[in-house]
Amino acid sequence: MTPKSQVVLQVRDLACERDGRRLFEGLQFSLQAGAAIQIKGSNGAGKTTLLRTLIGSSSDFTGEILWCDSAYPQSLSAMRESLLYIGHRGGVRSGLTPLENLTWYGADHEDALNALDKVDLTGFEDSLCHSLSAGQNRRVALARLFLPDSPRLWILDEPLTALDVVGVAALEEQMAVHLYSGGSILLTSHQPLSLAGLSEVNLSDYSVSEPFEDFGGEHVDS
Amino acid sequence: MSTVDVQTPVSEVRSGPGFMALFRIEMLLALRKRADIANPLLFFVTVLALLPLGVGPEPELLAKMAPGMIWVMALLSTMLSQESLFKGDFEDGTLEQLTLLPQPLYFAVLAKSLVHWIATGLPLALLSPLLALMLNLPVDGYVCLLVSLLLGTASLSLIGAIGAALTVALRRPGLLLALIVMPLYVPVLIFGTGAVQAAIDGYAYSAQLAILAALLAAAAALAPLAAAGAIRISLDN
Fold first, then answer.
1. How far apart are CA B63 and CA B52, in angstroms?
2. pTM over cut 0.80
3. Per-residue pLDDT tens for A146-177?
4. B6: which chain A residues are within 8 Å (Cβ-Cβ)?
5. Facing residues of A86 across strands?
6. Does the N-terminal peptide bond of residue A73 adopt cis geometry, omega within 30 degrees of 0?
7. ipTM of the assembly?
8. I want to staple A39 with a disulfide (CB 3.0 to 4.6 A). Which of A45, A161, A188, B130 is the partner?
């Protein structure tokens, strides 16, 4: 199924903190070309923090992150060059139309129209995004996944939020296409995904069992 | 449904939008939000129009106060409009995307500051001769007032970006933004009013304008760097 099984992103013994609270530790996984990993975990388990750490937006971590066998932060800029990240906040400018949003991300006119057609936004190309619904704005953000020459690593934070059944199916199909052409996907979602080559990492398995034991016996309500 | 050719290669390297693309999109957004452009300008004009009513219409008194009042109001109206500089981009996730671009965040901040100046500082400076007339500023000061405001408001837009970047994650940055930015505005204010006062008094004012230009050059080089760093810190929590 996969053209090559080469490790693109590897995480070794990773521990992340947020606001002084250790979210998880000892996290290990490696993401191969043509494979996808779904990050699971209860609310507050650190899914978003993990993704933001991997894209280099959060530096509060210990452990090793490797992009193509070279460690962060040296390899961070190389990773970003092949990264498409869609965060919890989609990066869709409400003052622009869907078409303008996509061309701003570097698409040419024709490709942008095509991508908007794939996410079922035909007819809304020239409406301002603040007049669109939450689900439609999500689709504008996700339309970036339907542009040609997609970066090889997709990191998606809750991409299925606010999508209807048809939207989820179209997204799953596009993900399959991306994996088939040798790309990799790392995503968080609470919903099940039907995707060949998808493995799961549950952050709750790595949560710190006795919180704040590193703080010298300090008693804090958890 | 999907008709994407599965054989398309997955690209390795991506180039982001250049400075001109960043500038164009900011300009487009600024033009769509005309109220944001009009507000600081209206504030500037209204307060200065009310001033003679407050302190009395004596021409000598007004002439004495005009340079300082015009400059202080320019400072305040620039600062008021600065609060929203990165706010929208922070909330919709664009700021996060900008930090992931291959090119430095410096250019994005520079483009935003430039558009902010075109939308607030430039019309304010162009309008200043009219207000100078209302406040009975001596005619000798007009050219100097215009030039000093052109140079000075550009510096204010750049310096204000630092404060806007530091407070972008806060819900109500108002007073904190003022406390951060106002001390940094002081040199611009001093040399701006100094230049106009010198012009009115009939002295050479090129030295003050040169210092304003130097402040602008320094602000253009350093303020976007500082603001870019502040944005990364604001996002990293």
1. 11
2. yes
3. 998 889 999 999 999 888 899 999 999 999 99
4. 177, 180-181
5. A156
6. yes
7. 0.85
8. A188
